[in-house]
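WARN retry 2 of 3 for item q-0093 after timeout on previous attempt; input resubmitted unchanged.
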Amino acid sequence: MLSATRRWSPLVAALASVSLLAGCGAAADEGAEGREVVASFYPLAWVSERVAGDGWTVTNLTAPGQDSHDLELSIDATARLSEADLVVYLEGFQPAVDDGIDVNASGPTLEAGEVVDLVPALDHGAEEHDGEAHGDGESHADEGTHADEETHDEEHDHGDLDPHFWQDPERMALLAEAVADELAELDPENAGTFRGNAEELVEELTALDADYEEGLSGCRRDIVVASHDAFGYLEKYDLHVEAIAGLDPGTEPTPAVLAELADLIRDEGLTTVFSERLASPEVAETLAADLGIETAVLDPLEGLTDETAEDDYLSLMRANLTALEEANGC
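OK item q-0093 returned
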């Protein structure tokens, strides 16, 4: 899915030699005479790196420890967008990246949302998986914080859609195949390598998806209270996710939302409120302390931190699975 070629602005052209430290993959100067993928944040960079292999440099615009939602592009980052052979991004997730691509990107782009089938932000429970709707036919939506929300119309812009598709390994597999197709078109001599790497990655992601299906089946509880609305795609595994904050982790919950969550936690006998890395755990910890229950970390996988620098997408997803199994009595 190659976008129309955009013009390279004179200012950016003059700065194109400035290096940018990558949050994933090799340092940019190591691939100066090779080919480069620029990805806007960690899950996209991880997939791109796995598919591209050693012959390409992959640069992550979002540095480890940085909140991907609030990314602002430096001059260095803008230069990277301009000279990249391929830019992989998610429209609407990082507005600064969208603007930078519109103004400065001169090469092809791959917009992840076009290939992974994003779903409406409040409609996860209506998804079908393996041909059958999940759940027992009863919706918890009217019990939680989204009680009065209405289903969106069928057509949406990305502002109406949940961007956190990487919580679903099957959708990550779709992205891997799309990246392989783009790289094969740009570098036909290595097309077999890209497609072989993608095939191997798809196998790993399929196994991860199966582990989630098995691990989250037969749980005593099926409701998860998380710090922000980044885990809706997990509802394909018969979970129902209630968030303290909205799609943006910086959103402050209202007292009414906290009161409804407290009632839900008591009524359902929940044992855990999940906080996350890269965002303050204060509200989640206060809610849990007031109710005398536990807190645990559920990583939204939007980026790595110093604590998770040695991890990757697969290991962090498996750590999340373990935390969910423990909290929900699976």
